[in-house]
């Protein structure tokens, strides 16, 4: 009887987790769990598709993703050359990415998870970001087709997952890949 009860408890947990994931619409995102103790913060606004301004004034660069530029910069011109598209097209894609990110996080409490390096050369925090309901924001932006991959060692914890999401978004023509 003990084995049957344990099996039923385990099955109930799987069914509950599956139902919860399906109800929230982001099963893949919910499969990623925190490593360490996450820091809880409030997002004031999305600066662009891959950078957030926190209510305490800190900037967070989302690890593993790169969204098109919206503002005139050397990176915008490099992106334009690399993609063989005019600057205005890249900026329009950047605005779409920013709007998507803004819709996910602006004004919300989020959890930050860090990898090996905590800051970039611009002194921004480097983090994986999660909503209170467990959605993995970095992954969701890629999965919905609003970012390219940007893998910079040693911060590579979820690079395989991001590669999978990126391939799916391109194949299914989501977001910017329509």
What would your notes on this structure say?
43% of the residues lie in helices and 20% in strands. The protein has 178 residues and is α+β, with helices and mostly antiparallel strands. It has a 5-stranded mixed barrel. A two-stranded antiparallel ribbon has the order 4-7. It is globular. The protein starts with a helix and ends in a 7-residue tail after the last helix.
As a whole number of angstroms, the C-alpha radius of gyration is: 18 Å
Compute the separation of the termini in Å.
54 Å
The side-by-side strand order for the widest beta sheet comes to: 1-2-3-6-5
Beta-strand residue percentage? 15-25%
Question: Number of helical segments?
Answer: 6
Could you report the average pLDDT, rounded to the nearest whole number? 85
Helix share, percent: 40-55%
Question: Structural class from helices and strands?
Answer: alpha+beta
Shape: globular
Q: Write the H/E string, N to C.
A: HHEEEEHHEEHEH
Low-confidence stretches: 1-31
Tell me the major beta sheet.
5 strands, mixed, barrel
How many beta-strand elements? 7
How do the strands and helices of this protein lay out in sequence?
Layout: H1 2-24, H2 27-30, E1 39-48, E2 51-54, E3 59-62, E4 64-66, H3 74-83, H4 87-105, E5 109-113, E6 125-131, H5 137-143, E7 148-150, H6 159-171
Parallel strand pairs: 3-6
Antiparallel strand pairs: 1-2, 1-5, 2-3, 4-7, 5-6
Helix pairs in contact: 3-4, 5-6
How would you summarize this macromolecular structure in one to three sentences?
The chain is of the alpha+beta class and 178 residues long.
